[in-house]
Amino acid sequence: MKQPLYIKSACAISPQHTFRATEFPLELVSYDDGKMFVIDPDYTKYVSPVAIRRMSRLIKRGIAAGMQSLEDAGVQQPDAIITGTARGSVTDMERFLTDMIKLNEEALNPTFFIQSTYNSVNGWLALQTKATCYNQTYVHRGFSLELSLFDAQLLLADTNDLQNILVGGYDELTPEYFFIRDKSGYYKKEIPASLSLLQHSDTAGSIAGEGAAFFVASNEQGDATCAIYGIQMLTTPTYAELAAATDILLSENRLTKEDLDVLLYGINGDSRYNHLTHPFLENTSGNTTVATYKQLCGEYDTASGFALWLAQLISKTQEVPKEVVYRSGTSASVKNMLICNITIAGNVSLILVKSI
Amino acid sequence: MAERVVVTSVGIISALGIGKEAHIAALRSGLSGVHYARHLQSVHAAELMLGEADLSNDELAVMNGLPTGDNGYTRTTLLALTAMQDLLKTTDINLLKNEPFAFINANTVGGMSKVEDMYLDLISEYTQPENIKYIDTLDCAESTQNVADHYGLKPFMATISTACSSSVNAMLLGARMIKQGVVKRAICGGCDALSRFTVNGFYTLKNVSRSLAMPFDQNRTGLNIGEAAGFCMLESESSAIARGAKILAVLSGYANTNDAYHPTAPSPYGEGAYNTMQQAIQMAGLQPNDIDYINAHGTATLNNDLAEGRAIQKLFADKMPYFSSTKPFTGHTLAAAGVIESIFSMWSMQEQTVYPNLNFETQMEELTISPVTSLIDGVSLKHVLSNSFGFGGNNVSLVFSSK
Q1: Backbone angles phi, psi at B17, to 5 degrees
Q2: Average pLDDT over residues B88-101
Q3: What is the interface pTM, i.e. ipTM, of the complex?
Q4: Do the beta carbons of residue A287 and residue A256 sit within 8 Å?
Q5: Residue B262 has what pLDDT?
Q6: Nearest Cα to B168, choosing from A156, A135, A164, A152?
Q7: Cα distance between residue B364 and residue B353, in whole Å
Q8: Domain A228-355 carries which CATH code?
Q9: Which of A119, A139, A143 faces B394 most closely, judged by CB atoms?
Q10: What are the Cα distances from residue A287, in Å, to A239, A258, A261, A279?
Q11: CA–CA distance, B177 with B46 (Å, rounded to integer)
């Protein structure tokens, strides 16, 4: 399990201009209403005109991000397709459910039902690439993408062949979904402009986001500029548990806190987790540059995909974009990066990424 | 050579009841659990027969030591808790508290069975306060987290959703984690409760039957939807032996492939099913003629039974094993189907019995093979194959071998 998971390509569709971007977006988009919807690219390149008409946004997004990341890695057909999504196509679920209730279970459209199935993006990606290989969909809330990456590691540990695995995470925001989740206290009552989210970490809740991020992960280095060396998933950890898990992850890779060049810190501005996030930041070495990303993509269950996209970009460009720097560190390198993603439910994932 | 993965305990609830005794009694007597709905409220209730578990939500809650009424638990979770309770009758919970393990669960619609009844209230301006706690139960991980919390366990957790192959994919992940030495034990399976959402989904796709499902029959008219939960304790053989655990079966082969053919339909010639079965048998180090029994996916839809039947006929052309679909007993329990049929397959080996494919009358024109239609006792089954094929082309086959 110790072999690196090389990231040969990364593709993100997000509330920022990230799709097919070769450098950090020059212009950042700020959202004022607490709902960060993605900037949809032109999907007609990725889906046939017949299919696209009935296809919902999440499905198109998953296909486009998946196909583009394959193209970027120069892979025609992946050796496995593994994705994660907490909620799948929310739009389709809402349509089918609301129609069912309002039409009293008569004359329903099966397309919404089919597309609401959690593995439908995976099915489409297999169809599009004619990939009859291993195909898996994780639906475990804030760890859906992490489990997909973990599964990819597990697959590659079990083979001597060089393989390219398409891994992705995607979740969708809808006005209705926002409205419902807001009742659980997930989002801020006084909504800041998204780019200044983290200056409002003294109030409860975050702001909502969505996105799709896909990667070609491999046991072959190829042209990869970074690789994943370890993943940890912690369900509602205390600070002590988080600190201990971080130490273990680093020491397993013969690293200390001082060796961390970049912390991609997935704080979401929710004051309810300050007891975790404040001490974690205080105990981060002065060497480490701390960068944040939830102000760019919002809070959603597979937001760590945006962070991994950013990590890959940093490894490629060999610099941390100044727009995301939260606290500068003394290290001039961007070799050792740690993604620490805090979900809206207080779960934390850690992904150790090294530039090559 | 990685070590073998064995199954040491199982837990189950379905329309046939709870636990091994109730299930074996029903499977032996040929008594189906499929009937008109008693609990599910649907305008189609009078026309659809369902594999509905007998117990109400309140009865399930009491069984699991929970308060009745709006207790925050969905039927999906209540079924999962009941299956776990059954598994823990033959597994010391301290084993799970003292050593790391994985809990890998699966389902297709999370707590939809509950949320669909309050959805209009949730999207209204003034939601009833008692409904707020159900908001997060609509996702698939709610049952996983609730089962772990209920028993005070902190395992490595994952939830999988690949339609009708979900729970066997959970078993596949658990087996792979054990083989790689990540954990010694994994409790794997799935749960799905009947919901109007699912019933209407299949209804609009026109693949539900108005009568009892007839798998592999020329005149089949579709499936009966069911509900169930099942879990298997997978374990490395050495750790099972070390603690003196009784070994039910060896999970000797598995394969996960994709049809890459169509979002909801298999290729009519069953290439996907063929490849999956072949790969699983190959992984087990076996030949097709080593397989003694196939617990088929056999949903009784036009598409599945044609594709699966053709694939079985082709792969096992030299020596046709016994095969049957046990779905007429339980209904098609979707995410739970794979694990409960795996459990039936292992019991088949243990009891030396082939359980029948109920309701079969007429030979399919496209096939020369036909399923076992009445109970067969006293047969030595060394290797059995269990198939689970899902929407999105997600196919899984498992091979179980006697130890």
Answers
A1: 125, -155
A2: 96
A3: 0.97
A4: no
A5: 87
A6: A135
A7: 25
A8: 3.40.47.10
A9: A119
A10: 21, 6, 6, 17
A11: 45
Amino acid letter, residue B277: M
Report CB contact under 8 Å: A110, B205. yes
Superfamily classification of domain A5-218: Thiolase/Chalcone synthase (3.40.47.10)
Length of chain B: 403
Residues ≥6 apart with Cβ < 8 Å to B94: none
CB burial string A287-326: b at 16+ within 10 A, e below: bbbbbbbbbbbbbbbbbbbbbbbbbbbbbbeeebbeebeb
**Quick one: pLDDT at residue B34?**
98
Q: Match 């984690």 to its residue by tokens.
A: B177
Q: CB neighbours of A34 closer than 8 A, spacing ≥ 6?
A: A178, A187, A188, A191, A194, A207, A208
Residue that has been written with the tokens 């740690």 in this structure: A338
For the stretch A296-317, pLDDT in tens is 999 999 999 999 999 999 999 9
Average pLDDT (B70-90) is 97
pTM, two decimal places: 0.98
> Structural domain boundaries of chain A?
5-218, 228-355
User: Are both A5-218 and A228-355 of the same fold?
Assistant: yes
A89 touches chain B (CB under 8 A): no
Percent of chain B with pLDDT over 90: 96
Record: contact A119-B163, CB cut-off 8 A: yes
**Cross-chain Cβ contact B116/A129 below 8 Å:** no
Domains of chain B, first to last: 5-242 (3.40.47.10), 253-401 (3.40.47.10)
Mind listing the pLDDT tens digit for each residue in B22-43?
A: 999 999 999 999 999 999 999 9
Q: Cβ(A234)–Cβ(A142) under 8 Å?
A: no
- Cβ atoms of A304 and A233 within 8 Å: the answer is no
Q: What distance in Å separates the CA atoms of residue B201 and residue B197, rounded to the nearest whole number? A: 6
Q: C-alpha angle with apex A319: A315 to A322, nearest 5 degrees?
A: 135
Read off φ and ψ for residue A229, nearest 5 degrees: -110, -10
**Total H helices, total E strands in chain B:** 14, 15
How far is C-alpha B289 from the chain's CA centre? 25
The residue-averaged pLDDT of B52-77 equals: 97
Q: Which residues of chain A have pLDDT under 70?
A: 1
Q: What is the rounded distance in angstroms from the CA atom of residue B222 to the CA atom of residue B220?
A: 6
The candidate with the shortest Cα–Cα distance to A140, out of B148, B117, B395, is: B148
Q: Which residues of B touch A51 (CB under 8 A)?
A: none
Whether the CB-CB separation of A134 and A185 falls below 8 Å is answered with no
The shortest CB-CB distance from A136 to any of B132, B160, B260 is to B160
Q: Provide the chain A residues 229-248 that lie in CB contact (below 8 A) with chain B.
A: 233, 235
In whole angstroms, what separates CA B83 from the centre of its chain? 12
Partner-chain contact A127 B205, CB within 8 Å: no
